Amino acid sequence: MNTDKNPHLAPQPAVNNVSNIEAPELFIGLVGAMGTDLSRVGSVLSASLSAIGYSAKEIRLSALLRDLEKYSDLPTRFRDEHIDKHIRAGDEFRKDCGRNDAVALLGVGRIKDLRESESSASAGRAYIINSLKNPEEVKTLRRIYGDSFYLVAAYSPLQE
Q1: Cβ contact 60:107 at 8 Å
Q2: Distance of alpha carbon 2 from its chain centroid, rounded?
Q3: Which of 54, 101, 103, 119 could pair with 140 in a Cys bridge, judged by C-beta atoms 3.0 to 4.6 Å apart?
Q4: Which of 68, 57, 52 is CA-nearest to residue 105?
Q5: 158 domain residue, yes or no
Q6: How would you write the pLDDT of the chain (160 residues) with one tens digit per residue?
Q7: Cβ–Cβ under 8 Å, residues 23 and 124
Q8: What's the pTM value of the predicted model, to 2 decimals?
Q9: Total count of domains within the chain
């Protein structure tokens, strides 16, 4: 077989160092039942990603709501109050925006900011979006990030 006419048939050099292969960006959305410790899930994911050369950033959607002046006084201390007030604020924000994916879009904006501030030569990057609340958010993230978006669901029973 003559490989001079078709360079694709010529022998290719072996890849000696897989660390030279550029890692794709990953976008991981977390969902879970109320009371599930998604921060713990995010920490485990971050550690696992770090072990394979990724740098993971957690995007807490509830914290992004608190960055808005209207919601800056949302409680952060008492778990029950925190959960209840943040759910209400997220629902109100979605209603005010007329979009069920409005809170997720805050996360998209934060990711954009992080991407612009990070070196393009950095190792693999992953963004862990904590926590999605409705199917429209998932649909939007899949539309924006395509095959690079992964949805992780977690469950743990409420501790009494």
Answers
A1: no
A2: 49
A3: 101
A4: 68
A5: no
A6: 555 565 555 555 544 444 556 789 999 999 998 888 899 999 999 999 999 999 999 999 988 988 888 888 877 776 666 777 888 888 999 999 999 999 999 999 999 999 988 765 556 899 999 989 999 999 999 999 999 999 999 998 866 5
A7: yes
A8: 0.80
A9: 1
